[in-house]
Write a structure and sequence with these properties.
Layout lengths: L1 H30 E10 L10 E4 L5 E3 L5 E7 L3 E5 L6 E4 L8 E8 L17 H10 L6 H8 L2 H10 L4 H17 L12 H13 L8
Parallel strand pairs: 1-7
Antiparallel strand pairs: 1-4, 2-3, 2-5, 5-6
């Protein structure tokens, strides 16, 4: 009984597949249409080369040649989109009541008007205006100039004095402070306010411009 049921199921599946393939072949053979024609502009009847002929909802399509002629295989009832740069798109439907398998189309595309933004023309400035604007133009520094400014000696001194120190520098400074404290233990540490060498270093730094505000 079990074997008989298996043979019955296999026979049913075979008949269903055979009938489906036969119907598919019949439908495909009757619905296939060779669509061909010419695409031209509506105003001057100029042939449109490289115009797109796309079947809507599918990945099928083609392009017209230099004379605007095209040819593509489609199915009855499908929608065809004609498009070209500078023209409005046009969609047609392949009729379902064709007596044969050929369908000719003489498709005209209308120009698509594109409104561009208005352009304001101004007179050329005088020599005095050009020199004034050129002299007052703030040109930003390029990468090379920024690198040169950052590697300047005065800039490096300011960065070294203002940027926070990392762990190694902080430990070294703390050790130096402790060493200085132990060195002057039991006596008065020197005050740089009355040190002529410290004042000489301050005057040199001031002349170099170390205290001027820099642009980064």
């Amino acid at each position: 009984m079990k074997r008989l049921l298996q043979f019955f199921l296999l026979g049913f599946i075979f008949l269903s597949v055979t009938q489906s393939e036969a119907q598919t072949k019949t439908v495909s053979k009757d619905s296939v249409v060779q669509l061909y024609g010419v695409i031209m502009s509506a105003d001057s009847l100029r042939a449109l080369a490289q115009a797109s002929v796309i079947v809507e909802g599918t990945g099928r399509g083609t392009l017209s040649n230099d004379q605007g002629v095209f040819s593509i295989v489609v199915l009855r009832g499908e929608q065809i989109r004609f498009s070209s740069t500078g023209f409005k798109d046009k969609i047609i439907t392949v009729p379902d009541t064709l007596s044969g398998n050929d369908y000719y189309v003489f498709q005209l595309l209308v120009n698509d008007t594109v409104n561009l933004p208005a352009t304001i023309l101004k007179p050329r400035p005088s020599r005095e205006q050009f020199e004034r604007d050129f002299a007052n133009t703030d040109i930003p520094a390029d990468q090379l100039e920024i690198a040169r400014q950052n590697t300047d000696e005065a800039t490096r001194r300011i960065l070294a004095a203002t940027l926070p120190k990392d762990g190694r520098e902080a430990v070294n400074m703390q050790l130096r402070q402790q060493a200085t404290k132990y060195y002057y233990n039991g006596q008065q540490p020197p005050i740089n306010l009355f040190n002529p060498f410290a004042w000489a270093d301050f005057i040199k730094a001031w002349k170099r411009g170390d205290f001027k505000k820099k642009k980064y």
